[in-house]
Amino acid sequence: MLNWIITFFILAVVAAFFGFGGLAGTFADIAKFIAVIFVVLFVVGLIYRMVTGRNANPPL
């Protein structure tokens, strides 16, 4: 997920540099949305680990 955030941020910067303001804003919004999802999942994982004492390993 962090790779996606960094990728969309770099795309937003490049698009802004070349003058595509609308596209840069869209990429920035996508990066912010993914970052919020990442933080929420991270906090949920921490709380799960504190309550149960186990890792949250999904089956593969």
From TrEMBL:
- Does the keyword Cell membrane belong to this entry? yes
Transmembrane intervals: 6-26, 33-51
Q: Which GO terms describe its cellular component?
A: plasma membrane
Query: Which keywords are on file for this protein?
Result: Cell membrane, Membrane, Transmembrane, Transmembrane helix
In the record, the note on similarity to other proteins reads: Belongs to the UPF0391 family.
**Alphabetized HAMAP family for the sequence:** UPF0391
The protein's name: UPF0391 membrane protein GCM10011273_07630
Species in which this protein is naturally found: Asticcacaulis endophyticus
**Upper lineage ranks?**
Bacteria, Pseudomonadati, Pseudomonadota, Alphaproteobacteria, Caulobacterales
